[in-house]
Description:
Layout: E1 12-16, E2 21-25, E3 30-43, H1 52-70, E4 74-79, H2 83-87, E5 93-101, E6 108-114, E7 124-126, E8 131-135, E9 141-143, E10 151-153, H3 154-162, H4 195-201, E11 209-215
Parallel strand pairs: 3-5, 3-6, 6-8
Antiparallel strand pairs: 1-2, 2-3, 4-5, 4-11, 7-8, 9-10
The structure holds zinc ion.
Residues 157, 161, 167 line the site of zinc ion (ZN).
Amino acid sequence: MPDTQTKPKTVNFTKKTKRMNFHVLGDRRMILVRQYWKYNYSEKKGASKWTSKEKKAFHKNIEKVIRAAWGGKFVLDVDGDSDFAKYYDKKPFSVKFDIDPKNSGAHWTIQAIKIPKGGFSRSWVNWGKQTIQLDTEDMVEVNKGGGTGVTQSGAAHEFGHTIKSPDEYIGITFHRFQKKSIMHSGMKIKKRHAKYLVDQLNKMIPGTKFKVTKVK
Length: 216
Ligand SMILES: [Zn+2]
């Protein structure tokens, strides 16, 4: 079909949820997912007190790791009978992620734990309570039992839980054998990891459905 569809008046849409905000930016063919994080800092035995410089660097590094792992990976196509869907037919969208520190009204509260270099502390995400525990070793990629050469950074994995992707190293699905997946022991993003995002996007624009066509 020839490209005669006229551009709709509105191509930008925003949806705010408890855990993240969604921005559909038509002109940039981009979906921006933004989370506001409030940091609480503590130290584990053997670690020195957080300095303000370290606090800043911690957030910067987390965002860097998450963006490298997740940013620009999902390619979404638009389908449906809305003007938006018709105009953006065969014009794919990419998905970018933003994490901004915010002290009041944040989506997530982060327990940031400083631990001794090379140490270990369990990290987790509690979806219901909107809390995340991360430590100063979570930006380092380490082998987590996924096989030779398969490494993962805790921050990138835990971020997957904030977009509602479950762990894949437990349970009875075939995902249990995909050790390179970011929700298992590696860094590989899979289409299924966008499920929650797509479900939310599909409630934003009447007559418009997004679908992951590939992962870059
Ligand atoms: Zn996990």
